[in-house]
Protein backbone atom coordinates (compact mmCIF):
# COMPACT_ATOMS: atom_id res chain seq x y z
CA UNK A 1 0.00 0.00 0.00
CA UNK A 2 1.12 3.55 -0.73
CA UNK A 3 0.86 6.38 1.76
CA UNK A 4 -1.38 9.33 0.92
CA UNK A 5 1.71 11.50 0.34
CA UNK A 6 3.34 8.96 -1.99
CA UNK A 7 0.25 8.58 -4.12
CA UNK A 8 -0.41 12.33 -4.20
CA UNK A 9 3.15 12.86 -5.48
CA UNK A 10 2.51 10.36 -8.30
CA UNK A 11 -0.71 12.11 -9.31
CA UNK A 12 0.97 15.52 -9.19
CA UNK A 13 3.73 14.24 -11.47
CA UNK A 14 1.07 13.78 -14.18
CA UNK A 15 0.11 17.46 -14.22
CA UNK A 16 0.88 19.67 -17.21
CA UNK A 17 0.18 23.37 -17.74
CA UNK A 18 -2.40 24.44 -20.31
CA UNK A 19 -1.52 27.51 -22.43
CA UNK A 20 -1.81 31.09 -21.22
CA UNK A 21 -4.54 33.45 -22.45
CA UNK A 22 -4.71 37.24 -22.31
CA UNK A 23 -8.00 38.38 -20.78
CA UNK A 24 -9.76 41.62 -19.83
CA UNK A 25 -9.12 42.28 -16.14
CA UNK A 26 -12.85 42.10 -15.41
CA UNK A 27 -13.03 38.47 -16.53
CA UNK A 28 -11.49 35.11 -15.70
CA UNK A 29 -12.08 35.22 -11.95
CA UNK A 30 -10.94 31.99 -10.25
CA UNK A 31 -8.26 31.30 -12.85
CA UNK A 32 -4.56 31.47 -12.05
CA UNK A 33 -2.29 34.42 -12.90
CA UNK A 34 0.43 33.31 -15.32
CA UNK A 35 2.85 36.24 -15.02
CA UNK A 36 3.77 38.63 -12.23
CA UNK A 37 1.88 41.92 -12.66
CA UNK A 38 4.16 44.89 -12.08
CA UNK A 39 2.95 48.40 -11.17
CA UNK A 40 3.07 50.80 -14.15
CA UNK A 41 1.98 53.64 -11.86
CA UNK A 42 2.21 54.21 -8.13
CA UNK A 43 -0.71 53.90 -5.74
CA UNK A 44 -1.65 56.53 -4.83
CA UNK A 45 -0.20 58.24 -7.94
CA UNK A 46 0.18 61.61 -6.09
CA UNK A 47 -0.02 63.03 -2.56
CA UNK A 48 -3.70 63.60 -1.85
CA UNK A 49 -6.12 64.42 0.90
CA UNK A 50 -7.56 61.65 3.10
CA UNK A 51 -10.31 63.95 4.38
CA UNK A 52 -12.67 66.72 3.36
CA UNK A 53 -11.05 69.77 4.97
CA UNK A 54 -8.37 72.38 4.40
CA UNK A 55 -4.88 71.95 2.98
CA UNK A 56 -2.44 73.98 5.08
CA UNK A 57 1.21 74.57 5.83
CA UNK A 58 1.77 72.84 9.16
CA UNK A 59 4.30 75.47 10.30
CA UNK A 60 1.53 78.12 10.06
CA UNK A 61 -0.74 76.31 12.49
CA UNK A 62 1.38 76.26 15.68
CA UNK A 63 -0.96 77.26 18.51
CA UNK A 64 -3.87 77.49 16.08
CA UNK A 65 -4.29 79.96 13.21
CA UNK A 66 -6.66 82.03 11.13
CA UNK A 67 -5.83 81.32 7.45
CA UNK A 68 -6.97 82.91 4.19
CA UNK A 69 -8.76 80.46 1.87
CA UNK A 70 -7.33 80.90 -1.64
CA UNK A 71 -8.69 77.91 -3.60
CA UNK A 72 -11.34 75.22 -3.72
CA UNK A 73 -10.00 71.77 -4.71
CA UNK A 74 -12.48 68.95 -5.46
CA UNK A 75 -11.27 65.44 -6.40
CA UNK A 76 -10.29 65.48 -10.07
CA UNK A 77 -9.29 69.17 -9.99
CA UNK A 78 -6.64 70.28 -12.45
CA UNK A 79 -5.74 73.28 -10.26
CA UNK A 80 -2.44 73.26 -8.37
CA UNK A 81 -2.36 76.63 -6.58
CA UNK A 82 0.75 77.43 -4.55
CA UNK A 83 -0.26 77.72 -0.88
CA UNK A 84 1.76 80.56 0.66
CA UNK A 85 2.32 81.54 4.28
CA UNK A 86 -0.98 82.23 6.08
CA UNK A 87 -2.99 80.57 3.31
CA UNK A 88 -5.16 77.44 2.99
CA UNK A 89 -7.19 75.69 0.28
CA UNK A 90 -10.47 73.93 0.79
CA UNK A 91 -9.81 70.35 -0.32
CA UNK A 92 -11.96 67.24 -0.79
CA UNK A 93 -10.96 63.60 -0.24
CA UNK A 94 -8.77 62.36 -3.12
CA UNK A 95 -7.84 65.82 -4.45
CA UNK A 96 -4.10 66.39 -5.00
CA UNK A 97 -2.38 68.16 -2.11
CA UNK A 98 -1.48 71.58 -3.58
CA UNK A 99 2.18 72.70 -3.69
CA UNK A 100 3.28 74.44 -0.51
CA UNK A 101 0.75 72.60 1.68
CA UNK A 102 1.98 69.68 3.80
CA UNK A 103 -1.04 68.72 5.92
CA UNK A 104 -4.83 68.61 5.92
CA UNK A 105 -7.14 69.77 8.70
CA UNK A 106 -10.47 67.90 8.63
CA UNK A 107 -13.39 70.31 8.23
CA UNK A 108 -14.94 69.15 11.50
CA UNK A 109 -11.83 70.46 13.36
CA UNK A 110 -12.33 73.97 11.91
CA UNK A 111 -14.90 76.74 12.36
CA UNK A 112 -16.44 75.89 8.95
CA UNK A 113 -19.16 73.42 7.99
CA UNK A 114 -18.77 70.79 5.27
CA UNK A 115 -19.93 72.02 1.88
CA UNK A 116 -20.36 75.69 2.84
CA UNK A 117 -21.46 77.83 -0.14
CA UNK A 118 -20.02 80.24 -1.05
CA UNK A 119 -16.43 79.34 -0.24
CA UNK A 120 -15.41 81.00 3.06
CA UNK A 121 -12.75 83.73 2.86
CA UNK A 122 -10.98 82.43 5.94
CA UNK A 123 -10.81 79.42 8.21
CA UNK A 124 -9.74 78.90 11.85
CA UNK A 125 -7.64 75.75 12.28
CA UNK A 126 -6.00 74.00 15.24
CA UNK A 127 -2.33 72.96 15.18
CA UNK A 128 -1.66 70.09 12.79
CA UNK A 129 1.47 67.95 12.21
CA UNK A 130 3.27 67.65 8.86
CA UNK A 131 1.66 64.86 6.84
CA UNK A 132 -1.58 64.75 8.85
CA UNK A 133 -4.48 63.35 6.79
CA UNK A 134 -2.29 63.16 3.69
CA UNK A 135 -2.10 59.95 1.63
CA UNK A 136 1.46 59.86 0.38
CA UNK A 137 2.22 58.99 -3.27
CA UNK A 138 3.28 55.32 -3.57
CA UNK A 139 2.56 54.53 0.09
CA UNK A 140 0.49 51.51 -1.05
CA UNK A 141 2.58 50.42 -4.06
CA UNK A 142 5.60 51.91 -5.84
CA UNK A 143 6.22 51.80 -9.60
CA UNK A 144 7.87 48.49 -10.53
CA UNK A 145 6.59 46.54 -7.52
CA UNK A 146 4.95 43.14 -8.13
CA UNK A 147 1.31 43.74 -7.29
CA UNK A 148 -0.28 40.40 -8.23
CA UNK A 149 2.19 37.50 -8.28
CA UNK A 150 1.90 34.62 -10.72
CA UNK A 151 0.45 31.46 -9.23
CA UNK A 152 -2.26 33.36 -7.39
CA UNK A 153 -5.98 33.00 -8.13
CA UNK A 154 -7.46 35.94 -9.99
CA UNK A 155 -10.11 37.66 -7.86
CA UNK A 156 -12.12 40.89 -8.05
CA UNK A 157 -9.61 42.39 -5.57
CA UNK A 158 -6.67 41.40 -7.84
CA UNK A 159 -8.49 43.00 -10.79
CA UNK A 160 -8.91 46.19 -8.74
CA UNK A 161 -5.19 46.12 -7.88
CA UNK A 162 -4.29 45.61 -11.54
CA UNK A 163 -6.53 48.50 -12.61
CA UNK A 164 -5.03 50.74 -9.92
CA UNK A 165 -1.48 50.15 -11.23
CA UNK A 166 -2.36 50.69 -14.88
CA UNK A 167 -3.29 47.32 -16.40
CA UNK A 168 -6.39 46.67 -18.52
CA UNK A 169 -5.48 43.06 -19.37
CA UNK A 170 -4.09 40.06 -17.50
CA UNK A 171 -2.42 36.83 -18.60
CA UNK A 172 -4.23 33.85 -17.05
CA UNK A 173 -3.74 30.12 -17.38
CA UNK A 174 -6.53 28.48 -19.31
CA UNK A 175 -8.68 26.15 -17.21
CA UNK A 176 -7.88 22.46 -17.80
CA UNK A 177 -10.75 20.67 -19.54
CA UNK A 178 -12.15 17.72 -17.61
CA UNK A 179 -14.57 14.90 -18.41
CA UNK A 180 -16.30 13.17 -15.49
CA UNK A 181 -17.42 9.57 -16.02
CA UNK A 182 -19.20 7.80 -13.16
CA UNK A 183 -19.16 4.06 -13.81
CA UNK A 184 -21.72 1.56 -12.55
CA UNK A 185 -24.52 -0.47 -14.13
CA UNK A 186 -26.66 0.27 -11.06
CA UNK A 187 -26.64 4.02 -11.81
CA UNK A 188 -29.54 6.02 -13.25
CA UNK A 189 -29.59 9.75 -14.04
CA UNK A 190 -30.76 11.85 -11.09
CA UNK A 191 -34.55 12.07 -10.95
CA UNK A 192 -35.24 8.90 -12.98
CA UNK A 193 -37.62 6.38 -11.35
CA UNK A 194 -35.58 3.56 -9.80
CA UNK A 195 -36.02 -0.13 -10.54
CA UNK A 196 -34.81 -3.06 -8.46
CA UNK A 197 -31.13 -2.68 -7.46
CA UNK A 198 -30.77 0.74 -9.04
CA UNK A 199 -29.55 3.96 -7.41
CA UNK A 200 -29.29 7.54 -8.64
CA UNK A 201 -25.87 8.56 -9.93
CA UNK A 202 -24.72 11.13 -7.39
CA UNK A 203 -21.00 11.04 -8.20
CA UNK A 204 -21.10 12.74 -11.59
CA UNK A 205 -22.76 15.87 -10.22
CA UNK A 206 -20.56 15.74 -7.11
CA UNK A 207 -17.31 15.40 -9.03
CA UNK A 208 -18.27 17.84 -11.79
CA UNK A 209 -19.14 20.45 -9.17
CA UNK A 210 -15.89 19.90 -7.30
CA UNK A 211 -13.85 20.04 -10.51
CA UNK A 212 -15.45 23.42 -11.32
CA UNK A 213 -14.77 24.56 -7.75
CA UNK A 214 -11.12 23.51 -8.17
CA UNK A 215 -10.83 25.57 -11.36
CA UNK A 216 -11.35 22.88 -14.01
CA UNK A 217 -13.71 23.27 -16.96
CA UNK A 218 -16.11 20.34 -17.12
CA UNK A 219 -16.80 19.33 -20.72
CA UNK A 220 -19.04 16.35 -19.88
CA UNK A 221 -20.26 14.59 -16.76
CA UNK A 222 -22.39 11.46 -16.85
CA UNK A 223 -22.85 7.88 -15.74
CA UNK A 224 -21.59 4.96 -17.83
CA UNK A 225 -22.50 1.29 -17.37
CA UNK A 226 -19.98 -1.36 -16.37
CA UNK A 227 -20.05 -2.70 -19.92
CA UNK A 228 -16.55 -2.52 -21.39
CA UNK A 229 -17.73 -1.38 -24.84
CA UNK A 230 -19.87 1.39 -23.27
CA UNK A 231 -16.95 2.64 -21.19
CA UNK A 232 -14.58 2.57 -24.18
CA UNK A 233 -17.14 4.59 -26.17
CA UNK A 234 -17.42 7.06 -23.27
CA UNK A 235 -13.65 7.55 -23.39
CA UNK A 236 -13.92 8.27 -27.12
CA UNK A 237 -16.72 10.80 -26.42
CA UNK A 238 -14.51 12.44 -23.79
CA UNK A 239 -11.63 12.96 -26.22
CA UNK A 240 -11.90 16.77 -26.00
CA UNK A 241 -10.95 16.68 -22.33
CA UNK A 242 -7.34 16.93 -21.20
CA UNK A 243 -8.23 15.21 -17.94
CA UNK A 244 -10.67 12.34 -17.37
CA UNK A 245 -11.91 11.78 -13.83
CA UNK A 246 -13.78 8.53 -13.26
CA UNK A 247 -15.51 7.02 -10.27
CA UNK A 248 -16.02 3.34 -9.54
CA UNK A 249 -14.65 0.27 -11.24
CA UNK A 250 -11.16 0.41 -9.75
CA UNK A 251 -11.33 -2.11 -6.94
CA UNK A 252 -11.03 -5.89 -6.99
CA UNK A 253 -14.63 -6.92 -7.76
CA UNK A 254 -15.77 -8.80 -10.88
CA UNK A 255 -17.00 -5.84 -12.99
CA UNK A 256 -14.22 -3.30 -12.62
CA UNK A 257 -14.68 -1.60 -15.95
CA UNK A 258 -12.05 1.13 -15.56
CA UNK A 259 -9.51 -1.50 -14.63
CA UNK A 260 -10.47 -3.69 -17.62
CA UNK A 261 -10.36 -0.78 -20.06
CA UNK A 262 -7.02 0.75 -19.15
CA UNK A 263 -5.03 -1.87 -17.24
CA UNK A 264 -1.50 -1.83 -18.53
CA UNK A 265 -1.29 1.90 -19.26
CA UNK A 266 -2.53 2.98 -15.85
CA UNK A 267 -1.23 2.30 -12.40
CA UNK A 268 -3.79 0.75 -10.01
CA UNK A 269 -2.84 1.15 -6.38
CA UNK A 270 -4.14 0.76 -2.88
CA UNK A 271 -3.61 3.83 -0.72
CA UNK A 272 -3.42 3.57 3.06
CA UNK A 273 -6.39 5.85 3.69
CA UNK A 274 -10.00 5.64 4.75
CA UNK A 275 -12.15 6.23 2.83
CA UNK A 276 -10.61 6.02 -0.64
CA UNK A 277 -8.35 2.97 -0.67
CA UNK A 278 -8.52 1.91 -4.36
CA UNK A 279 -7.09 4.54 -6.71
CA UNK A 280 -5.65 4.63 -10.21
CA UNK A 281 -4.02 7.24 -12.40
CA UNK A 282 -1.81 7.66 -15.43
CA UNK A 283 -1.77 8.76 -19.05
CA UNK A 284 -3.90 7.16 -21.73
CA UNK A 285 -3.71 7.68 -25.47
CA UNK A 286 -6.87 7.85 -27.57
CA UNK A 287 -7.36 6.49 -31.10
CA UNK A 288 -6.28 9.84 -32.58
CA UNK A 289 -3.02 9.63 -30.61
CA UNK A 290 -3.93 12.39 -28.14
CA UNK A 291 -2.86 11.96 -24.54
CA UNK A 292 -5.21 12.36 -21.60
CA UNK A 293 -4.54 12.15 -17.89
CA UNK A 294 -6.87 9.68 -16.20
CA UNK A 295 -7.53 10.05 -12.48
CA UNK A 296 -9.74 7.16 -11.36
CA UNK A 297 -11.45 7.44 -7.98
CA UNK A 298 -13.34 4.83 -5.98
CA UNK A 299 -17.10 4.62 -6.53
CA UNK A 300 -18.21 4.97 -2.94
CA UNK A 301 -19.49 8.55 -2.84
CA UNK A 302 -17.70 9.64 0.33
CA UNK A 303 -14.54 7.95 -0.96
CA UNK A 304 -14.95 9.83 -4.24
CA UNK A 305 -15.47 13.12 -2.38
CA UNK A 306 -12.43 12.65 -0.13
CA UNK A 307 -10.28 11.48 -3.07
CA UNK A 308 -11.32 14.54 -5.06
CA UNK A 309 -10.19 16.86 -2.27
CA UNK A 310 -7.00 14.95 -1.50
CA UNK A 311 -5.79 14.12 -5.04
CA UNK A 312 -7.85 15.90 -7.74
CA UNK A 313 -7.67 19.32 -6.12
CA UNK A 314 -3.84 19.51 -5.87
CA UNK A 315 -3.58 17.91 -9.32
CA UNK A 316 -5.85 20.55 -10.91
CA UNK A 317 -4.01 23.29 -8.99
CA UNK A 318 -0.76 22.05 -10.55
CA UNK A 319 -2.46 21.96 -13.98
CA UNK A 320 -3.28 25.66 -13.53
CA UNK A 321 0.08 26.81 -12.20
CA UNK A 322 -1.43 27.60 -8.79
CA UNK A 323 1.15 27.81 -6.01
CA UNK A 324 -0.87 28.37 -2.88
CA UNK A 325 -1.90 25.41 -0.74
CA UNK A 326 -5.34 25.60 0.86
CA UNK A 327 -4.99 26.56 4.52
CA UNK A 328 -4.82 23.81 7.12
CA UNK A 329 -6.43 24.64 10.44
CA UNK A 330 -5.43 22.98 13.71
CA UNK A 331 -8.59 22.27 15.72
CA UNK A 332 -9.28 20.25 18.87
CA UNK A 333 -11.62 17.26 18.78
CA UNK A 334 -14.94 17.58 20.64
CA UNK A 335 -16.14 13.94 20.34
CA UNK A 336 -13.61 11.14 19.79
CA UNK A 337 -13.89 8.20 17.38
CA UNK A 338 -12.08 5.00 16.42
CA UNK A 339 -9.94 4.97 13.28
CA UNK A 340 -8.62 2.09 11.18
CA UNK A 341 -5.11 0.97 12.16
CA UNK A 342 -2.39 1.55 9.58
CA UNK A 343 -4.49 3.85 7.40
CA UNK A 344 -4.78 7.61 7.41
CA UNK A 345 -8.33 8.77 7.86
CA UNK A 346 -10.20 11.74 6.46
CA UNK A 347 -13.22 12.22 8.69
CA UNK A 348 -16.02 14.49 7.46
CA UNK A 349 -16.58 16.84 10.40
CA UNK A 350 -18.55 19.84 11.51
CA UNK A 351 -16.75 22.64 13.34
CA UNK A 352 -18.44 23.64 16.61
CA UNK A 353 -17.35 26.05 19.33
CA UNK A 354 -16.17 22.96 21.31
CA UNK A 355 -14.09 21.61 18.40
CA UNK A 356 -14.68 19.22 15.51
CA UNK A 357 -17.04 16.27 15.63
CA UNK A 358 -18.02 13.70 12.95
CA UNK A 359 -20.67 15.10 10.65
CA UNK A 360 -22.58 11.79 10.79
CA UNK A 361 -23.32 9.54 13.79
CA UNK A 362 -21.96 6.62 11.72
CA UNK A 363 -18.64 8.39 11.22
CA UNK A 364 -16.83 8.10 7.93
CA UNK A 365 -18.96 5.36 6.30
CA UNK A 366 -18.13 5.78 2.65
CA UNK A 367 -21.73 5.30 1.42
CA UNK A 368 -23.25 8.10 3.56
CA UNK A 369 -23.75 10.51 0.67
CA UNK A 370 -27.07 12.00 1.76
CA UNK A 371 -25.53 13.53 4.87
CA UNK A 372 -22.08 14.40 3.51
CA UNK A 373 -23.21 17.93 2.67
CA UNK A 374 -23.34 18.66 6.43
CA UNK A 375 -19.55 18.29 6.60
CA UNK A 376 -17.67 21.57 6.76
CA UNK A 377 -14.22 20.04 6.75
CA UNK A 378 -12.16 16.86 6.58
CA UNK A 379 -10.21 16.09 9.73
CA UNK A 380 -6.96 14.27 8.96
CA UNK A 381 -5.99 11.44 11.31
CA UNK A 382 -2.46 10.10 10.64
CA UNK A 383 -2.05 6.40 9.84
CA UNK A 384 -0.42 5.51 13.16
CA UNK A 385 -3.31 6.85 15.28
CA UNK A 386 -5.96 4.29 16.27
CA UNK A 387 -8.16 6.30 18.53
CA UNK A 388 -9.05 9.98 18.40
CA UNK A 389 -9.84 11.32 21.86
CA UNK A 390 -11.60 14.53 22.91
CA UNK A 391 -9.00 17.31 23.21
CA UNK A 392 -6.68 15.81 20.54
CA UNK A 393 -5.70 18.46 17.99
CA UNK A 394 -6.01 17.51 14.30
CA UNK A 395 -5.20 19.07 10.92
CA UNK A 396 -8.51 20.15 9.42
CA UNK A 397 -9.13 21.04 5.75
CA UNK A 398 -12.15 23.11 4.86
CA UNK A 399 -14.31 21.59 2.12
CA UNK A 400 -16.75 24.38 1.32
P1 LIG B 1 -17.44 0.63 -7.00
O1 LIG B 1 -16.22 1.40 -6.61
O2 LIG B 1 -17.79 0.75 -8.42
O3 LIG B 1 -17.31 -0.79 -6.53
O4 LIG B 1 -18.66 1.26 -6.17
C1 LIG B 1 -18.69 1.21 -4.77
C2 LIG B 1 -20.03 1.63 -4.21
O5 LIG B 1 -20.31 2.97 -4.58
C3 LIG B 1 -21.21 0.82 -4.70
O6 LIG B 1 -22.14 0.67 -3.61
C4 LIG B 1 -21.80 1.67 -5.78
O7 LIG B 1 -23.19 1.43 -5.99
C5 LIG B 1 -21.58 3.06 -5.25
N1 LIG B 1 -21.45 4.00 -6.36
C6 LIG B 1 -20.57 3.87 -7.38
N2 LIG B 1 -20.72 4.88 -8.25
C7 LIG B 1 -21.70 5.66 -7.77
C8 LIG B 1 -22.30 6.86 -8.23
N3 LIG B 1 -21.92 7.44 -9.38
N4 LIG B 1 -23.30 7.42 -7.50
C9 LIG B 1 -23.68 6.82 -6.34
N5 LIG B 1 -23.14 5.70 -5.85
C10 LIG B 1 -22.17 5.12 -6.55
MG1 LIG C 1 -19.05 -0.07 -9.60
UniProtKB/TrEMBL annotation:
<dbReference type="InterPro" id="IPR005110">
    <property type="entry name" value="MoeA_linker/N"/>
</dbReference>
<protein>
    <recommendedName>
        <fullName>Molybdopterin molybdenumtransferase</fullName>
        <ecNumber>2.10.1.1</ecNumber>
    </recommendedName>
</protein>
<dbReference type="Pfam" id="PF03453">
    <property type="entry name" value="MoeA_N"/>
</dbReference>
<dbReference type="GO" id="GO:0005829">
    <property type="term" value="C:cytosol"/>
</dbReference>
<dbReference type="GO" id="GO:0046872">
    <property type="term" value="F:metal ion binding"/>
</dbReference>
<dbReference type="Pfam" id="PF00994">
    <property type="entry name" value="MoCF_biosynth"/>
</dbReference>
<feature type="domain" description="MoaB/Mog">
    <location>
        <begin position="179"/>
        <end position="318"/>
    </location>
</feature>
<keyword id="KW-0479">Metal-binding</keyword>
<dbReference type="InterPro" id="IPR005111">
    <property type="entry name" value="MoeA_C_domain_IV"/>
</dbReference>
<dbReference type="GO" id="GO:0061599">
    <property type="term" value="F:molybdopterin molybdotransferase activity"/>
</dbReference>
<dbReference type="GO" id="GO:0006777">
    <property type="term" value="P:Mo-molybdopterin cofactor biosynthetic process"/>
</dbReference>
<dbReference type="InterPro" id="IPR036688">
    <property type="entry name" value="MoeA_C_domain_IV_sf"/>
</dbReference>
<dbReference type="InterPro" id="IPR036425">
    <property type="entry name" value="MoaB/Mog-like_dom_sf"/>
</dbReference>
<comment type="function">
    <text>Catalyzes the insertion of molybdate into adenylated molybdopterin with the concomitant release of AMP.</text>
</comment>
<dbReference type="InterPro" id="IPR038987">
    <property type="entry name" value="MoeA-like"/>
</dbReference>
<comment type="similarity">
    <text>Belongs to the MoeA family.</text>
</comment>
<comment type="pathway">
    <text>Cofactor biosynthesis; molybdopterin biosynthesis.</text>
</comment>
<keyword id="KW-0460">Magnesium</keyword>
<dbReference type="InterPro" id="IPR036135">
    <property type="entry name" value="MoeA_linker/N_sf"/>
</dbReference>
<keyword id="KW-0501">Molybdenum cofactor biosynthesis</keyword>
<keyword id="KW-0500">Molybdenum</keyword>
<dbReference type="InterPro" id="IPR001453">
    <property type="entry name" value="MoaB/Mog_dom"/>
</dbReference>
<dbReference type="Pfam" id="PF03454">
    <property type="entry name" value="MoeA_C"/>
</dbReference>
<keyword id="KW-0808">Transferase</keyword>
Amino acid sequence: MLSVEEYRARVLALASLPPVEECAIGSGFGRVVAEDMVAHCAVPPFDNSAMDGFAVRSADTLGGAHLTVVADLPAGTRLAPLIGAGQAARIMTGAPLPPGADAVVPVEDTDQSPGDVPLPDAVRVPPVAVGAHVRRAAEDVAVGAVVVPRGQRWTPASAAAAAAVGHARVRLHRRPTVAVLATGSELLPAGAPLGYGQIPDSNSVLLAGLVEQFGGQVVCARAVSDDLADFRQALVDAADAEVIVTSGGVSVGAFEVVRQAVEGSIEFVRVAMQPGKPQASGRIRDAAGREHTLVALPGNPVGAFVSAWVFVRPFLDACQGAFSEPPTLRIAVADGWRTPPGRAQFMPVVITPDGVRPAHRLGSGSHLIASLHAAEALAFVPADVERVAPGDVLDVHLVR
